[in-house]
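for the recovery benchmark. tokens below, seq after
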């Protein structure tokens, strides 16, 4: 997919396939200011690795996949349908997920580095930024600059142009807010006025 008017000099180009990088390749190509948090969900535990250019650390939590999925589904439902009566329960669940997913490796985090989270399985539905530290009561996003990425390889490949570009005076951004589509073909898809407003505010 090439998003540009000039196919000879695309501003954004995504390949349909790419080979996965191994750990040493990821570390060699990882930007100095970045850290990766890679998760793996097994039947009886969740393992997390924290990867920087010069270190590879890991930790785990013992929890069944079924119990973890239940917590993820519950927090997703609560966030999708906010209810002030559930604030205490939501906060408790956000702390539980923080304990399961963050605490085992948090001592390896560096608040000076950008954090790229690579979720696994249903962890893709976890609102990592909204997880709450039981110790400080703060959201994870208050302590770390967080983003999620489908894989470490995609993060590295996407970061490569930035590393080569160096300092530039102006930035350009592709913002997709409320895309147009064939209403007859996709009659069940709702409009996204909130996303459109958000995109316009970001563009300002």
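predicted aa per position
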């Amino acid at each position: 997919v090439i998003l540009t008017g000039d196919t000879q000099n695309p501003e954004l180009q995504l390949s349909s396939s790419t080979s996965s990088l191994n750990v040493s390749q990821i570390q060699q190509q990882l930007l100095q200011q970045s850290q990766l948090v890679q998760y793996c969900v097994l039947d009886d535990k969740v393992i997390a690795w924290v990867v920087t250019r010069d270190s590879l650390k890991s930790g785990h939590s013992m929890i069944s996949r079924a119990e973890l999925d239940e917590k993820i589904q519950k927090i997703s439902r609560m966030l999708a349908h906010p209810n002030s009566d559930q604030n205490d329960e939501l906060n408790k669940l956000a702390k539980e997920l923080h304990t399961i997913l963050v605490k085992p490796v948090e001592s390896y985090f560096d608040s000076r580095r950008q954090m790229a989270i690579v979720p696994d399985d249903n962890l893709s539905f976890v609102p990592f930024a909204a997880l709450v530290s039981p110790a400080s009561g703060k959201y994870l996003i208050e302590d770390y600059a967080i983003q999620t990425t489908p894989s470490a390889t995609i993060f590295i490949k996407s970061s490569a142009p930035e590393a080569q570009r160096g300092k530039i005076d102006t930035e350009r951004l592709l913002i997709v807010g409320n895309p147009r589509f064939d209403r007859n073909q996709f009659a069940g898809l709702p409009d996204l006025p909130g996303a459109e407003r958000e995109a316009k505010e970001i563009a300002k």
